[in-house]
Design goal:
By secondary structure, this protein is of the alpha+beta class. The protein has 9 helices and 4 strands, in the order ααβαββαααβααα. The protein has 2 domains: about 10-120, no CATH class; about 140-195, no CATH class.
Length: about 200
């Protein structure tokens, strides 16, 4: 895309795209503004997040003296329970040094993959990464809403209770939608079968 600096409409469009896509900068600026020393990253498409699991990753981060800790690399927990924790100093270093577009479009690739940080990667004893508990499509929302309705009026249920529900009533958390259809096609073609689990 070639933009003339004199064309304000084009410049505004480019600025809007950059603002939406450069997540690393957004995280750094927000953390800097509030004076954060430690950042706990959980995302809004994970409504079944368990605070006990978050606390576990926080405790591991604090006790180990690392600069970055997570439970996503390699993925062993259900998709939708992603927790990442890192220091502001590490975030600032990533913000200054990350040069590749993918390292700036997303928040933590440079922290995880550059080899310049002390990291801790928590794994579950069983690989449950084929479970998908995120909300990306309307069908996902219906599945998660059904989980909340099942436990109502409780709202303090944990992720292991959700897993027990999945095992007892698999139809309630059956993956649906275009994402799952795509993954099924890939599996039929011999690709990425580890990330697809049918009821």
């Amino acid at each position: 895309m070639t933009l003339s600096p004199r064309t304000s409409a084009n410049w505004d469009t480019l600025s809007s795209v950059v603002a939406r896509t450069m997540c690393l900068d957004r995280y750094f600026q927000a953390a800097k503004q509030v004076g954060a020393d430690i950042i706990v990253r959980i995302t809004g498409d994970c409504p079944l997040m368990d605070p006990v699991l978050v606390d576990r990753v926080i405790s591991a981060f604090k006790s180990s003296g690392v600069e970055y800790a997570c439970n996503i690399d390699p993925p062993t927990y259900p998709d939708g329970l992603d927790v990442e924790i890192f220091s502001f100093q590490s975030l600032e270093k990533a913000w200054k040094e990350a040069a590749q577009p993918a390292e700036r479009e997303h928040v933590t690739p440079y922290l995880r993959e550059s080899g310049k940080f002390r990291t801790l990667k928590l794994r579950h004893s069983e690989n449950l990464s084929g479970e998908r508990w995120t909300v990306d499509e309307p069908e996902d929302f219906d599945v998660v809403a059904g989980v909340f309705e099942y436990f109502y009026p409780r709202n303090d249920f944990g992720w292991q209770e959700v897993l027990q529900l999945r095992q007892a009533r698999p139809e309630m958390l059956r993956p649906t939608g275009t994402w799952f259809a795509m993954k099924e096609r890939q599996c039929q073609q011999g690709r990425n079968c580890g990330n697809v689990r049918s009821a």
